[in-house]
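Lab notebook, bench 4. Still working through the backlog of constructs that have no structural model yet. Next entry is a single chain of 198 residues. Request: give me the structure tokens for it.
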Amino acid sequence: MEQDFQTSFIPKKPIVPERAVATKPVGSLLIIALLILFTVLIATGGLYFYKGLTQNKKESMEKNLLVAQARFEPARIAELQVLDKRLRAGAEILANHIAVTPIFEALQALTLKTVRFTNFSFELGEDRSVPIRVAMSGMAVGYRSIALQSDLLAKNKSFLEPIFSNLTLDKSGNVLFDLEFSVDPSFLNYQRTLPAGS
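Model written out:
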């Protein structure tokens, strides 16, 4: 009987005995610490580059500002500031200035042919918002003319409270009178009398 035996040149058992390698499980705290470390490193790098970018942008803006400042002429700016002050002062003077001519124009339009004014005076107060007081003297052909003139003056909204007083007859039969009324200050504003294109 033949023996059946097989010879193998590959060893079935290791020549050197294997050692077991002990592995420790990685803790969750270590993973979190590594994540925080990488996050801090990335944030630090990002902030470093951001600082560089903002520094470059700042330098660029400073250069642009210097170029813009060089474009302006300091002498021209000073000249324009003086002109601005003059224009503001002129506008203030114009806003506070009064013109008496609107009173005369209104009286010209409202005065009857039978009435004649002989004396005119007006009083301005310190406060420009207070109505201006006007006192006049005149002569009319009769009492009827004074009544009609009173009605016409009362219809004008710029003349406030017209009052005829001291009615007396002269040697010719004409009626002498005094007239007092107030005028709205906005009616006498000088700017109002200027042409629209001025």
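Notes after review: The mean pLDDT is 83. The chain has five helices and four strands. Flag for follow-up if needed.
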